[in-house]
Amino acid sequence: MFKRSRFALALLAAVIMSTQAMAQTDLPKEPPLPAPLETMAKEGAQLRYMGNEGGLDAWMAIQNGQEQYFYVTPDREFVLLGMLFDKSGKMITLQQVSKLQKSGDPVLDVLKANVSTPDASVTDQLPKTEGDIAKALKTPSEQLFADVESSNWKALGKDTAPVMYMFIDPQCPYCHEFMKTLRKDIEAGNVQVRMIPVGFRDETRAQAALLLAVPNAQERWFRHLDGDKDALPVTPGVNEQGVERNMAIMQSWKLNVTPLSMYRAKDGKIKIVQGRAKDLKALLADLQPAQ
């Protein structure tokens, strides 16, 4: 009886090991990111590998609430943007995304990614390189402002309003107070705050990364200010490279406080406000009008 039990246990273990091996084989092995997608990741895009079909590695990229689908040729020399169909007209991309959504990825659950048709203007969506945004700068303040303009930010307010950039930490109480003071002017179109999320702790970096990824950052941020704990959940697995880039800008210029605001004044000079503005009315009156 003992021998038979040992044999049964051994057989069961062999079956389990075989099943695990098959399950692991079914999981797609993630290849290295091609260079264009690495750039998108640094700008805060959430990237997920969707497997290989027809020799093409497939990636989903989610940025500013929009999904895009990329296919990489076997020689890794070319990256294609769009949907993949088989010879019968069946949309392979839809199957890949459906399988990905069933994987239980918490980031996808938060972002609620769905298949959508990519915009026709491909060239406008491709990320710019640092060389593309380089400018001939004369002063350190102009260099700093150019770095801030090229950071990963989310706009709060109307496009027709004067612009002010602000580094914020999602859990910084002083950021909360300043934003609450500005909220009426943001909603009234008196200022557009280009919020640059950073995080000085693991928890706040994850929340900052989520702010860069969601399509409704203004709504979520104001809900967060109102005390809604579900507005900015700490989501495991969220890509934090976009936030790290913002942090790198602060560190390179030895900026270590939040909120930290920066704007171009009516006289053309770059001005910096550390903490809350002492005279908000004077600050808003000093902003250069929107171009």
Question: What order do the helices and strands come in, and which of them pair?
Answer:
Blueprint: H1 2-26, H2 35-42, E1 46-53, E2 56-63, E3 66-72, E4 79-81, H3 92-101, H4 106-111, H5 122-125, H6 130-133, H7 140-149, E5 154-156, E6 163-168, H8 173-188, E7 192-197, H9 202-213, H10 217-225, H11 241-252, E8 260-264, E9 270-274, H12 280-286
Parallel strand pairs: 6-7
Antiparallel strand pairs: 1-2, 2-3, 3-4, 5-7, 6-8, 8-9
Helix pairs in contact: 9-11
Can you put this structure into words, describing what you see?
There is one protein chain. This protein has 2 domains: 35-125, Nuclear Transport Factor 2, Chain: A, CATH 3.10.450; 132-286, Glutaredoxin, CATH 3.40.30.10. The chain has 12 helices and 9 strands. It has helices at 2-26, 35-42, 92-101, 106-111, 122-125, 130-133, 140-149, 173-188, 202-213, 217-225, 241-252, 280-286; strands spanning 46-53, 56-63, 66-72, 79-81, 154-156, 163-168, 192-197, 260-264, 270-274. It is α+β, with helices and mostly antiparallel strands and 291 residues long. The strands form 2 sheets. It has a 5-stranded mixed β-sheet with strand order 5-7-6-8-9. The longest helix is centred in the N-terminal third of the chain and has 25 residues, at 2-26.
CATH fold-level name of the largest domain: Glutaredoxin
Structural class: alpha+beta
Instruction: Tell me the quaternary state.
Output: single chain
Count of separate structural domains: 2
What spatial form do the alpha-carbon principal axes imply?
elongated
Give the DSSP E fraction (strand runs of 2 or more residues): 15-25%
End-to-end separation in angstroms reads 87 Å
Total count of helical runs of at least 4 residues = 12
The profile of the biggest β sheet is: 5 strands, mixed
**Helical proportion?**
40-55%
Name the CATH class of the largest domain: Alpha Beta
Report the CATH architecture of the largest domain.
3-Layer(aba) Sandwich
Any idea what the CATH superfamily of the largest domain is called?
Answer: Glutaredoxin
Task: Give Rg in angstroms.
Answer: 24 Å
